[in-house]
Amino acid sequence: MFKTICYKSEANASLNLLEFEALFNQTQLKNNSHNITGVLVKRDNVFFQILEGNPIIIDTVYEEIKKDHRHSNILELLNKSIAQLNFKSFDIGYAVIKDTDALYGLQKFVTGLQQNNIENSPLFLQIIEELLTEH
């Protein structure tokens, strides 16, 4: 059995481009080293993240995320057990989405999940489409 956690938050307005790049690199390395799959999306001042993996590791990582000063106003959208990893085949593991083209690629991937009736995909697709239509 696996676990997924999905949340949205507001990026700290004082972070500069180098700090964002460092955050993305640290997140990707850490999650890959812990066999966590999923995505981190930054669109304007919004972070959206999906984490999947071992329940103990996911809970530990999420507790660290909630204490991170680089974002605030965390809105937990999903926190539950899942039977399979849905994002393992997206970008080979854990992916960071920083531009609109990559976000459209994620939308296409999640649309495929939804067509295959993969659990939670309608929620993920809704959030991604909201991110694409903002601004």
Description:
It is a single chain. The protein has 135 residues and is an alpha+beta fold. Helix content is 44%, strand content 30%. The chain has one domain: Alpha-Beta Plaits (2-Layer Sandwich), CATH 3.30.70.100. A hairpin with a 2-residue loop joins strand 2 (37-43) and strand 3 (46-53). Helix 3 packs antiparallel against helix 4 (121-133). The relative contact order is 0.23.
What are the key terms here?
135 residues, alpha+beta, Alpha-Beta Plaits, five-stranded mixed sheet, 4 helices, 5 strands, BLUF domain-containing protein, BLUF_domain
**SSE order:** EHEEHEEHH
Instruction: Determine Rg (CA atoms, Å).
Output: 14 Å
CATH architecture, by name, is 2-Layer Sandwich
Mean pLDDT value: 90
Number of helices: 4
InterPro entries: Acylphosphatase-like_dom_sf (IPR036046), BLUF_domain (IPR007024)
Protein name: BLUF domain-containing protein
Q: Brief description of this entry?
A:
The protein is α+β, with helices and mostly antiparallel strands and 135 residues long.
Task: Outline the secondary-structure elements.
Elements: E1 2-11, H1 17-33, E2 37-43, E3 46-53, H2 55-67, E4 71-82, E5 94-97, H3 100-115, H4 121-133
